[in-house]
C-alpha cells in the first residue's frame, strides 16, 4: 500500500475526492472489517491512521493490528477515563467502561472512521477533550455529519453504528450490503 497512511491522504488530498470515492473508501474499510469479523478478529482501534491506500489512491486496506495488541495488554486502563492508551474518541461506550471489545465495538469505531473520511481527516468530536467526548457519548450525544456527507451514508450507516446498545448496531455484513447499494446508486447517477 505505497500510497501511505490514510489519515495523511485524507488531510492532504481528501478535499479533492468525490463523495463517490469517499464512499468507496468507506466500503473498502467495511469489506476489510467484514473479513476480520468472519475470522473472529477484533481490531479494537479502527481509525484512519490505521488504514493505508494504494499508490493510485483508489483502494483502502485495514492495518495496524499492533495497536490492538497494546490495548489487550493494558485492559485495566479502561477503568481510568484519563488513560492515554485507550483511543477514547474511537472507542465504544461498553469498551471504555467495561473493557468489552467485540465486533460491535469495532462497528462503533467504524462509524468514527466514517466521520474522519467525510471530514477529510478531522479529529472526531471537534473541540472536545477525550474526557469531554467520553462524557458526551455517555449522555448519548452523537456527532453531526461532516459537510458533504451523503445523507444515505449518515442515516443508514454512520448513525446506526453509534447506537448505545451493541446488539442494536449494524453488523459489518449489513454495512457492506448498504454501502454496496449506495455506491452502485452513486455510480449510476454520476
What is the architecture at the second tier of CATH? Orthogonal Bundle
Assign the CATH topology.
Transferase(Phosphotransferase), domain 1
Helical fraction: 40-55%
The termini sit apart by 28 Å
- Major sheet details: 3 strands, antiparallel
The tally of structural domains comes to 1
**SSE run:** EHHEEHHHHHH
Kindly describe this structure:
The chain is mostly helical and 190 residues long. The chain has one domain: Transferase(Phosphotransferase), domain 1 (Orthogonal Bundle), CATH 1.10.510. It contains 8 helices and 3 strands. Strands 1-2-3 form a 3-stranded antiparallel β-sheet. Strand 2 and strand 3 (60-62) form a beta hairpin. The longest helix is centred in the N-terminal third of the chain and has 20 residues, at 19-38. 41% of the residues are buried.
Question: Which features characterize this protein?
Answer:
190 residues, mainly alpha, Transferase(Phosphotransferase), domain 1, three-stranded antiparallel beta sheet
Short description:
It contains eight helices and three strands. It is mainly α and 190 residues long.
How are the elements arranged and paired?
Elements: E1 4-5, H1 6-13, H2 19-38, E2 51-53, E3 60-62, H3 66-73, H4 93-98, H5 103-118, H6 130-138, H7 151-161, H8 172-189
Antiparallel strand pairs: 1-2, 2-3
